[in-house]
Structures are given as C-alpha cells and as structure tokens.
Amino acid sequence: MRVSISRRALIWLSGLVLAGSMTLVHAAPVSFTVPLSGAQEVPPVETKGSGSADLTYDPGTRIVTWSVMFSGLPSEATMAHFHGPATTGKNASVKVWLSGKGGAVTSPFKGQVTLSPADAQEFLAGEMYINVHTKDHPSGEIRGQVLPPKSN
User: Fold this and answer.
1) Whole-structure pTM value
2) In what order do the strands lie in the sheet with 63-71?
C-alpha cells in the first residue's frame, strides 16, 4: 500500500514539473518595435518628427523594457508615457511614465517597469500606446500603438 501511494505521489509530482516547464517555455519574452509618428496622434499632428520604441515584454514577470528613439521634433520633448486602455484611433489617460518626470527628454531613453496584472492584459491586447509629448504639442507629437506579436 505504501509503495502505491509513493508511486502516485511521484507521478503527480512529475506532472507538476512537466506542466511548470511547459509554462516556462510558453512564457518566453517577446521583443518588437513600435513606430512613432504624428499621423498616429488623435487628432493627427503634422510634424517632421518620428521615432520608434524597441520593447521587450516578459509574460512570466510582467516586466516590459523599452528603448525609445526619436528625431526631427520641432521643439523639445518634455515627457513620454504608455497610455491606455485605448485601441488605435482612441485616446486614453497615462498608465506608465516612460521618461523621467520633469525636464527635457533626450533620445534615446531607456527604462523598465513591472506592469500590474490588469495593465499587462491591456498591453498584450494592443490597448496601449506610446506618446511622446513636446513643448509645441503638449498633448502628444508622435505616437505608436503597442501591438505585441501574437503567439502561436
């Protein structure tokens, strides 16, 4: 009887280990680039400025890292954020500061944050966007919708 319980425990434990390893494989970090332009602002902004954000998201830890680059802005960049929840063409409030609070923002700038579970769901659903604000366009000059690649 004792041997039978040990075998059941071993089989059960093996199943847990296998399930855990499959979760780790499934939760691999994903990297992608978000193009930033004035045309994506709502309403659109005429600007020669453009940029891109290189993002990496780890679903296991909910950590997102970024490196945001921009050029051609006609005035000083003042701040940058993730906004949400909002699909393409919609506006939303600030979720996460990407730049430091106060002062000028220089290109490139980098950072990382751990998203809340709710913010992580919005991020993965494509319901966040990056907005770079400037002195000339305090509500945003260049923007890009965060659209993580879909896992298969």
Assistant:
1) 0.81
2) 94-97, 77-83, 128-134, 142-146, 30-37, 50-58, 63-71, 109-114
